[in-house]
Amino acid sequence: MARSDTRGRIGLFLACLGLSWFCGLCPAAAAPRFTTARAEKAVVIGGSISRFYAGSFGQFLQYACRDLEVVNLGEVGAGAAKMRRNFQTGVLDRDTGLIRHMPDGHRWLLVQGGLNSVWLPEATSWTLSRLFLDAHDAGFGVVALSLSPWGDDSDPRFDGWKGLRMHRATEHVVDFVMGRLKPAAAFGARAAGRPDNPPDWLTGELPAVAVDLWASELRAGPTVPLRPAEPLRDSFATSHYRKRVDAKDDLVAAARAIGRQFLAKKYQSFDATHPNTAGHKLMAMLTCQKAPAAWSCDCDALRRGEWRAGKVQAPK
Length: 316
Known about the structure:
Blueprint: H1 3-17, E1 40-46, H2 57-64, E2 68-72, H3 80-92, E3 107-112, H4 121-137, E4 140-145, H5 160-177, H6 183-187, E5 209-211, H7 229-235, H8 248-256, H9 277-288, H10 299-304, E6 306-308, E7 311-313
Parallel strand pairs: 1-2, 1-3, 3-4, 4-5
Antiparallel strand pairs: 6-7
Helix pairs in contact: 2-9, 3-4, 4-5
């Protein structure tokens, strides 16, 4: 591996470690369990975004879907590998896992995560696909929310050409979840580890329902000014993309527009990575529009719902 590429991977690794700095902000919780008679049982698996404590997408969905109960097993700092382990130990364990209280035919996995390992997009996509397979093989329907927009211009992880590389790593994982990639493109060399390595997807490797948060209204959008072109052109020769001279103009254009892919300020919570309550409500709305019929969701009730006094409620 070239020294510059090694530095780039290390830089992405160190950058992504910052995603879980706010661990101390999350209040301690009792051991999760199901407490209602609702027929459909769902578990949320993800990282810090899924664990949001002031009106998460899971809480909004439980409010709007009369037959759905949601238990949140999201964990601050969890990348794809830890998410899979959390599902195996917290859900699938036949002695202690939540599956004991999830009737066959009424089990659901809600996934939103992978950002804490996104600097390795092929590995993250591979591990998420193994998580989806674990769930499928255990009789779960899988509903996956893609990674959401994140970042801002003050964040050094998005300086110059680093911003485009971080953006494209995130987009790679999104495109896998949304089924836009073939396995060889999604997994790279890891694709050879699939049974018989077919060119198309095996049953269970993709979610049954995929929700695109990345290209949604969560984005800052086209009103954000483009970045200056000259600094990018001047630094191209030392960038990660320096060998792609034929594509230089397109790459510069993409790097200039990175700010338009960030999380919109109105949806930011304490930083530019984690959506606030309004952002989570939008995430739930986008999911509601594709929700399984068995959940009995009322998307209009969700639209009118409010986070108040520690729970989602009808408006006053």
